[in-house]
Specification:
The protein is an alpha+beta fold. It has 2 domains: about 60 residues; about 100 residues, Nucleotide Exchange Factor Grpe, Chain A, domain 2, CATH 2.30.22.10. The protein is about 50% helix and about 15% strand. It contains 4 helices and 6 strands.
């Protein structure tokens, strides 16, 4: 009589350990993997090594700070020098402007004075040629004095050279004359007066200068004849 069990069923004797291990394997595959296990931390460094590492780090930070400070100091020094040069240039410009202004105030009329001086020379020649009793001469003399006073208020001053030692800085020698009345190199005549504008010579005095007089020729000795007094 045929067996009642299903023809497709398979029966076998499987040990329980094998079955349990297979079930566990299936569960491991079916179950999602959990978080990765954290690695075991390395052993802590020794105190000496930690101190050396910290010292090296601080030394590197100090060197970096010093380098940055040097760069900043150099930049500040360059900027300071640039400002000092700019201030010095500005001060020089101010001094030059003041000096030029003073030059203009003191000597700005020099060209005008040089144009007026020949007028004074003409008045001097007219007075020298006019008779002293001529009433016109007194008017010319007054006009000349007024013109010279007006120039004097602006710093124009004449100077006399007659009788003075010749000075090439303020005298212009027109000629020399040999004379025994004056010491050599002395101004014996003044052809044209000299003038200063404040402390600046604007026209030298035109003068005649003395020279040493030539020595007298020696008298030749005369032979004494017999019976003649020497």
């Amino acid at each position: 009589m045929p067996d009642d069990r299903d023809d497709h069923a398979i029966s076998a004797d499987i040990p329980a350990e094998i079955v349990a291990e297979a079930v566990a394997a299936v569960e491991r595959v079916a179950t999602p993997a959990g978080p990765a296990e954290q690695p075991i931390p390395a052993a802590q460094e020794a105190p000496e090594e930690r101190a050396a590492s910290e010292l090296e780090r601080l030394r590197a930070e100090l060197e970096l700070s010093q380098e940055s400070a040097r760069k900043v100091f150099e930049q500040l020094k360059e900027e300071h020098d640039r400002r000092l040069r700019a201030a010095a240039d500005l001060e020089n410009v101010k001094k030059r402007a003041v000096r030029e202004r003073d030059e203009v105030l003191r000597y700005g009329i020099e060209r005008l004075v040089k144009e007026i001086l020949p007028v004074l020379d003409g008045l001097d020649r007219a007075l020298a040629a006019a008779p002293k009793e001529d009433p016109l001469a007194s008017g010319v003399e007054m006009t000349r004095r007024m013109l010279e006073d007006a120039l004097g208020r602006f710093g124009v001053k004449p100077f006399s050279a007659r009788g003075q030692p010749f000075d090439p800085r303020v005298h212009e020698a027109l000629m020399t004359v040999a004379t025994a009345e004056h010491a050599p190199n002395t101004v014996v005549e003044e052809q044209q007066r000299g003038y200063f504008l404040h402390d600046r010579l604007i026209r030298p005095a035109a003068v005649v200068v003395s020279a040493a007089a030539p020595a007298a020729p020696a008298t030749p000795a005369r032979a004494v004849t017999d019976g003649e007094e020497p």
